[in-house]
Amino acid sequence: ATSTDLVHWKHEPVALAPSEPYEYDETKSEMGCFSGSAVMNGDVMTLFYTGHLEGQESKEVQAIATSTDGIHFTKHVANPVINGSPEGLSDEFRDPKVWKHGDLWYMVVGTAVGNDGAVALYKSINLIDWEYVGIAAKSDGTQGDMWECPDLFPLGDKYVLLVSPMNTDRGKSTVMVGSMDYDKGIFIPESQREIDYGIDFYAAQTFEDEKGRRI
Fold first, then answer.
1. 142-164 burial, b for 16+ CB within 10 Å, e for fewer?
2. Considering only CA atoms, which of 138, 136, 112 is closest in space to residue 185?
Protein backbone atom coordinates (compact mmCIF):
# COMPACT_ATOMS: atom_id res chain seq x y z
CA ALA A 1 0.00 0.00 0.00
CA THR A 2 1.18 3.55 -0.71
CA SER A 3 0.47 6.89 0.91
CA THR A 4 1.52 10.52 0.65
CA ASP A 5 0.60 11.40 4.26
CA LEU A 6 0.61 8.09 6.26
CA VAL A 7 -3.15 8.57 6.83
CA HIS A 8 -4.77 7.81 3.48
CA TRP A 9 -3.63 4.60 1.77
CA LYS A 10 -3.98 3.12 -1.69
CA HIS A 11 -3.78 -0.62 -2.30
CA GLU A 12 -1.12 -1.69 -4.80
CA PRO A 13 -0.45 -5.12 -6.38
CA VAL A 14 0.99 -7.78 -4.05
CA ALA A 15 4.70 -7.05 -3.66
CA LEU A 16 5.94 -10.53 -2.67
CA ALA A 17 4.30 -13.94 -2.61
CA PRO A 18 5.80 -17.43 -2.04
CA SER A 19 7.25 -18.75 -5.29
CA GLU A 20 10.78 -20.06 -4.59
CA PRO A 21 12.01 -23.32 -2.99
CA TYR A 22 13.02 -21.52 0.24
CA GLU A 23 9.48 -20.17 0.73
CA TYR A 24 7.07 -22.33 -1.27
CA ASP A 25 6.11 -26.00 -1.21
CA GLU A 26 2.53 -26.93 -2.05
CA THR A 27 2.76 -29.95 0.26
CA LYS A 28 3.52 -27.80 3.32
CA SER A 29 0.86 -26.25 5.51
CA GLU A 30 2.94 -23.24 6.56
CA MET A 31 5.01 -21.15 4.18
CA GLY A 32 5.42 -17.53 3.22
CA CYS A 33 7.29 -14.29 2.74
CA PHE A 34 7.59 -12.84 6.24
CA SER A 35 8.11 -9.20 7.17
CA GLY A 36 11.41 -7.35 6.98
CA SER A 37 12.60 -3.93 5.84
CA ALA A 38 13.86 -1.95 2.86
CA VAL A 39 16.71 0.43 2.09
CA MET A 40 17.60 2.63 -0.85
CA ASN A 41 20.86 1.66 -2.55
CA GLY A 42 21.28 4.49 -5.02
CA ASP A 43 18.10 4.49 -7.10
CA VAL A 44 17.32 0.86 -6.29
CA MET A 45 15.07 -0.17 -3.42
CA THR A 46 16.38 -3.35 -1.80
CA LEU A 47 13.81 -5.19 0.25
CA PHE A 48 14.81 -7.76 2.88
CA TYR A 49 12.39 -10.44 4.04
CA THR A 50 12.23 -13.87 5.65
CA GLY A 51 11.47 -16.90 3.55
CA HIS A 52 9.56 -19.33 5.76
CA LEU A 53 8.98 -22.98 4.98
CA GLU A 54 7.93 -25.25 7.84
CA GLY A 55 9.48 -28.70 7.91
CA GLN A 56 12.81 -28.06 6.23
CA GLU A 57 16.17 -27.98 8.02
CA SER A 58 16.49 -24.19 7.82
CA LYS A 59 12.86 -23.21 8.09
CA GLU A 60 13.60 -19.48 8.06
CA VAL A 61 16.12 -17.81 5.76
CA GLN A 62 16.77 -14.20 4.76
CA ALA A 63 16.19 -13.09 1.19
CA ILE A 64 16.23 -9.91 -0.87
CA ALA A 65 14.17 -8.42 -3.69
CA THR A 66 14.84 -5.24 -5.65
CA SER A 67 12.67 -2.59 -7.25
CA THR A 68 13.08 0.67 -9.14
CA ASP A 69 9.49 1.82 -8.68
CA GLY A 70 8.57 0.52 -5.22
CA ILE A 71 5.71 -1.50 -6.70
CA HIS A 72 7.23 -4.33 -8.73
CA PHE A 73 9.90 -6.46 -7.04
CA THR A 74 12.37 -9.00 -8.43
CA LYS A 75 13.72 -11.69 -6.11
CA HIS A 76 17.51 -11.87 -6.24
CA VAL A 77 19.27 -14.82 -7.86
CA ALA A 78 21.58 -15.05 -4.83
CA ASN A 79 18.68 -15.89 -2.48
CA PRO A 80 18.69 -16.88 0.25
CA VAL A 81 21.46 -14.44 1.17
CA ILE A 82 21.48 -15.85 4.73
CA ASN A 83 20.77 -19.55 4.64
CA GLY A 84 19.48 -20.21 8.15
CA SER A 85 20.43 -19.28 11.69
CA PRO A 86 24.02 -19.57 12.98
CA GLU A 87 25.02 -22.49 15.19
CA GLY A 88 23.76 -22.09 18.73
CA LEU A 89 20.79 -19.93 17.77
CA SER A 90 17.15 -20.93 17.45
CA ASP A 91 15.64 -21.84 14.08
CA GLU A 92 13.14 -19.09 14.93
CA PHE A 93 15.10 -16.58 12.84
CA ARG A 94 13.20 -13.78 11.11
CA ASP A 95 12.31 -10.13 10.46
CA PRO A 96 15.55 -8.60 9.09
CA LYS A 97 16.05 -4.86 9.65
CA VAL A 98 18.84 -3.20 7.64
CA TRP A 99 20.64 0.16 7.95
CA LYS A 100 23.93 1.74 6.91
CA HIS A 101 26.66 2.92 9.27
CA GLY A 102 29.85 4.30 7.78
CA ASP A 103 30.81 2.25 4.74
CA LEU A 104 29.01 -0.91 5.85
CA TRP A 105 25.46 -2.19 5.87
CA TYR A 106 24.17 -3.83 9.05
CA MET A 107 21.27 -6.17 9.69
CA VAL A 108 19.57 -7.37 12.86
CA VAL A 109 17.44 -10.53 12.86
CA GLY A 110 15.08 -11.66 15.59
CA THR A 111 15.91 -15.02 17.17
CA ALA A 112 16.64 -16.74 20.49
CA VAL A 113 19.49 -18.29 22.43
CA GLY A 114 18.06 -21.17 24.41
CA ASN A 115 14.95 -19.79 26.09
CA ASP A 116 16.03 -16.17 25.82
CA GLY A 117 15.00 -13.81 23.05
CA ALA A 118 17.93 -12.35 21.14
CA VAL A 119 19.02 -10.23 18.20
CA ALA A 120 21.60 -11.52 15.71
CA LEU A 121 23.84 -8.94 14.02
CA TYR A 122 25.28 -9.14 10.49
CA LYS A 123 27.35 -6.82 8.31
CA SER A 124 27.88 -6.47 4.56
CA ILE A 125 29.67 -4.30 2.02
CA ASN A 126 27.19 -4.90 -0.80
CA LEU A 127 23.80 -6.02 0.66
CA ILE A 128 24.28 -9.52 -0.80
CA ASP A 129 27.23 -11.09 1.05
CA TRP A 130 26.53 -11.08 4.79
CA GLU A 131 28.95 -11.86 7.63
CA TYR A 132 27.62 -12.95 11.01
CA VAL A 133 28.99 -10.67 13.73
CA GLY A 134 27.33 -12.16 16.81
CA ILE A 135 24.53 -11.56 19.29
CA ALA A 136 23.94 -7.83 19.58
CA ALA A 137 21.48 -8.12 22.47
CA LYS A 138 19.82 -10.84 24.54
CA SER A 139 17.06 -11.20 27.12
CA ASP A 140 18.04 -11.09 30.77
CA GLY A 141 15.81 -14.11 31.35
CA THR A 142 12.62 -12.13 31.94
CA GLN A 143 12.08 -10.56 28.51
CA GLY A 144 10.54 -13.39 26.50
CA ASP A 145 11.83 -16.54 24.82
CA MET A 146 12.02 -15.11 21.26
CA TRP A 147 12.41 -11.54 19.99
CA GLU A 148 10.51 -10.65 16.82
CA CYS A 149 10.77 -7.60 14.55
CA PRO A 150 13.93 -6.00 16.00
CA ASP A 151 14.66 -2.40 15.04
CA LEU A 152 18.02 -0.82 16.00
CA PHE A 153 18.65 2.82 15.13
CA PRO A 154 20.43 6.00 16.30
CA LEU A 155 18.42 8.76 17.97
CA GLY A 156 20.30 11.83 19.12
CA ASP A 157 23.50 10.62 20.79
CA LYS A 158 21.95 7.27 21.78
CA TYR A 159 20.85 4.07 20.08
CA VAL A 160 17.37 2.61 20.42
CA LEU A 161 16.41 -1.07 20.19
CA LEU A 162 12.78 -2.05 19.64
CA VAL A 163 11.79 -5.69 20.03
CA SER A 164 8.53 -7.59 20.25
CA PRO A 165 9.08 -10.37 22.82
CA MET A 166 7.11 -13.60 22.71
CA ASN A 167 5.73 -15.40 25.77
CA THR A 168 6.27 -12.76 28.41
CA ASP A 169 3.99 -10.79 30.72
CA ARG A 170 6.23 -7.71 30.51
CA GLY A 171 4.58 -6.18 27.48
CA LYS A 172 3.93 -6.74 23.80
CA SER A 173 6.55 -4.33 22.48
CA THR A 174 9.64 -3.11 24.30
CA VAL A 175 11.99 -0.15 23.79
CA MET A 176 15.53 -0.11 25.15
CA VAL A 177 17.75 2.98 25.03
CA GLY A 178 21.52 2.69 25.24
CA SER A 179 24.66 2.70 23.11
CA MET A 180 25.97 0.69 20.17
CA ASP A 181 29.53 -0.63 20.12
CA TYR A 182 30.19 -1.41 16.46
CA ASP A 183 33.70 -2.72 17.18
CA LYS A 184 32.31 -5.41 19.48
CA GLY A 185 28.99 -5.72 17.67
CA ILE A 186 26.87 -5.27 20.79
CA PHE A 187 24.09 -2.98 21.96
CA ILE A 188 24.45 -1.91 25.60
CA PRO A 189 21.03 -1.07 27.11
CA GLU A 190 20.70 1.61 29.77
CA SER A 191 16.92 1.62 30.18
CA GLN A 192 13.88 -0.39 29.19
CA ARG A 193 10.15 0.23 29.08
CA GLU A 194 6.99 -0.96 27.40
CA ILE A 195 6.15 1.21 24.39
CA ASP A 196 2.37 0.98 24.57
CA TYR A 197 -0.01 -0.73 26.99
CA GLY A 198 -2.51 -1.84 24.35
CA ILE A 199 -2.74 -5.61 23.87
CA ASP A 200 -2.34 -5.35 20.09
CA PHE A 201 0.63 -2.96 19.80
CA TYR A 202 3.17 -5.35 18.31
CA ALA A 203 5.91 -5.60 15.67
CA ALA A 204 6.46 -1.82 15.51
CA GLN A 205 9.04 -0.55 13.02
CA THR A 206 10.59 2.84 12.30
CA PHE A 207 12.15 4.50 9.29
CA GLU A 208 14.04 7.71 8.60
CA ASP A 209 12.25 10.08 6.23
CA GLU A 210 13.77 12.45 3.68
CA LYS A 211 14.00 15.18 6.32
CA GLY A 212 16.02 12.98 8.69
CA ARG A 213 13.11 12.44 11.08
CA ARG A 214 12.62 9.10 12.79
CA ILE A 215 9.03 7.99 12.07
1. ebbbbbbbbbbbeeeeebbbbbb
2. 136
